[in-house]
Amino acid sequence: MRTMESPEPEMAVHQLEVGDNVKVITADGRKLRFKVLAIDDEQVTGEVIKPGPLATDERFSVPIADIRLVSRAEIDGIKTAGAAVAGGVLLAAAAFAIFFLTWSMY
Asked: Per CATH, the architecture of 2-75 is what?
């Protein structure tokens, strides 16, 4: 995953899209991590990202004027595809090893 940071928050906010996962630092120093639900000229509305069984649907809005730094996480397609291929190769190797060891016992 690659992170795109921008010290010019107003410009960066307008490049965000609904569904983006972002990290924001506000003027008062709060660090927020959320999924963008809506963007308008004055604020960004998001949903807190909390993985796992204790996840909540906590929604809130941040005024664009209060944002000092915004970063957007982007998925690197090449790394993701490479990981998928490597996983497939490992799975095939494990299946072959199990098959070979099972038949060599007879």
From this structure: Roll (2.30)
